[in-house]
Amino acid sequence: MAQYLLSVIHPASGPDLPKEELQQSFHDVDTFNDEIMKSGNWVFAGGLVPPDQATVVDGRGAEAIITDGPYVETKEQVGGFWIIEATDLDEALSLAARGSKACRVPVEVRAFHAEPPEID
Amino acid sequence: MSADPAGAGLDAELTAITRAESGRVIAALARRFGDLDLAEDAYGEALVVALEKWRSEGLPPNPGAWLTTVAGNKALDRLRREKRRREKYAEAAMLIDESPPEPTGPVEDDRLRLVFTCCHPALALENRVALTLRLLGGLTVPEIAAAFLVPETTMAQRITRAKAKIRDSHIPYRIPGVDDVDVRLSGVLAVLYLVFNEGYLSSQGDGARLDLCEEAIRLARQLQQMVDGTPTLGVRPEVDGLLALMLLIHARHEARLVDGALVMLPDQDRSRWDPALIDEGHRLVRGCLRLNRPGPYQIQAAINAVHTDALDTSMTDWDQVLQLYDQLLAIAPSPIVQLNRALVVAELDGPEVALALVDRLELRTYHPWWAARADLLRRLGRRDDARTAYGEAIGLADNDAERAWLQARAGTP
């Protein structure tokens, strides 16, 4: 089993859908969540507030520097995510396809490192 | 020190063995150890030992089995040396304890898994191509780099990146299930056809790089064998279709390129076609027709079968070719297919009708469109327009042989 981060890629301005379709999409995401809880793939999931409400903190210096807004301004931002458990990338991709269909936007799939990355 | 003839002969034999056995050995190791990198490295080490030993003692009766055993031991040695892989070593050792070589099928099965791993859609197409040639084809990195005209470091990076993604993202080492075997198999065929076309059309440079064509054909034969040996996959006529298509195109290579210049089908010396390859291609096409489950590769193969059936162009059954193009357009519509169809129409209904069809297509950056147009204009006696069109085609073509042909054509009244 491996864990994957499925990032939901939204336009930075938020989901761009008519109201009814947005409602239907929320409903579909709920259904999908129920399904992957039952199948044992669910680890965690959540939706995020808009990127303009993000705060960047840089704690490398003596005093942490706090900046209003996202780290990088881009046209697309992560609007939410799932963390799932899957046997392999094929299973993760097929779950991502269902998730993408439910939330009506593309989903990026990235595996978590199985063990801490090695430092040579 | 390979100046001695015996050594050179052995080297040639070793290359042949490497290319034939690479996929098999690496596939078996990859399944046993679940680590492509380890499999490839161990195989590389085994090859070094093999070269040394076989030079002094001659070839063993079964070089493939020998390589598998030695590479397996090399992999175990390496695992023993590497502390961080202790767990994997335990697993692998357990596997060995309990497992005499598996009884039926799994050899082909292993290799087929490797094919689907190397051609996984989560890998960029160029990386799939590189990995397939490296692991299944047994080509060296410098060989692949030279064939694709990229620096060795670039090619090495592509392969490293692809292997890292397979490992870290857990791309499975598995034959796809019934649900997606169609899509996945057509992805594999696309990789092989791309290798073939790179050899055949070689978008840059001076003509066909035949070794790539031959490699693509060899891999397609292997794939055909594997698919036939895996009943759960069912019958997959597109594999035969692709093999037939490549054989029928490759059969004409000696007639197609004469003194560095391209010779088009109507002008080719048909006695220089390879009759054995054409026979085999025709046999495969007939098999596909009997099965009657057409796909794009099968139809293209059938078109080439009609062409290679005629003793000269005037005897070509153009009606049949046109029907096949219509069938191809119905299942795989594309402006390039429409362009080729228009050239068939030219044979049946004359250049004027064909030109009207060609002019409707949005292919102004595609040099074969200009070349086709130029030829039709020439046949209509519109010499100035033809010259302009040839000029455009020459400007867009980046293959020397093709340019030479177009230049010669442009000067022909």
Structural overview:
With 120 residues, chain A is α+β, with helices and mostly antiparallel strands. Chain A has helices at 19-38, 89-103; strands at residues 2-11, 42-47, 55-58, 65-68, 76-86, 107-111. Chain A has a single domain (2-111), classed as Alpha-Beta Plaits, CATH 3.30.70.1060. Chain A has 2 helices and 6 strands, in the order βαββββαβ. In chain A, the strands form 2 sheets. In chain A, strands 2-5-1-6 form a 4-stranded antiparallel beta sheet, covered by helices on one side. In chain A, α1 runs antiparallel to α2. The longest helix of chain A is centred in the N-terminal third of the chain and has 20 residues, at 19-38. The two termini of chain A are 26 Å apart. Helix content of chain B is 72%, strand content 1%. The radius of gyration of chain B is 24 Å and the shape is elongated. A two-stranded antiparallel ribbon of chain B has the order 1-2. Chain B contains 20 helices and 2 strands. Chain B is an all-alpha fold. Chains A and B meet through α2 and β6 of A and loops of B.
Task: Please name the defining characteristics of this protein.
heterodimer, A: 120 residues, alpha+beta, Alpha-Beta Plaits, two-stranded antiparallel sheet, 6 strands, B: 413 residues, mainly alpha, Rna Polymerase Sigma Factor, Chain: A, 4 domains, two-stranded antiparallel ribbon, 20 helices, 72% helix, 1% strand, elongated
- What is the terminal-to-terminal distance of chain A? 26 Å
Strand order within the widest sheet of chain A? Answer: 2-5-1-6
Assign a percent range to the helix content of chain A: 25-40%
Assess the beta-strand content of chain A as a share of residues: 25-35%
Question: What is this entry, summarized?
Answer:
The complex is a heterodimer of chains A (120) and B (413). Chain A is of the alpha+beta class and 120 residues long.
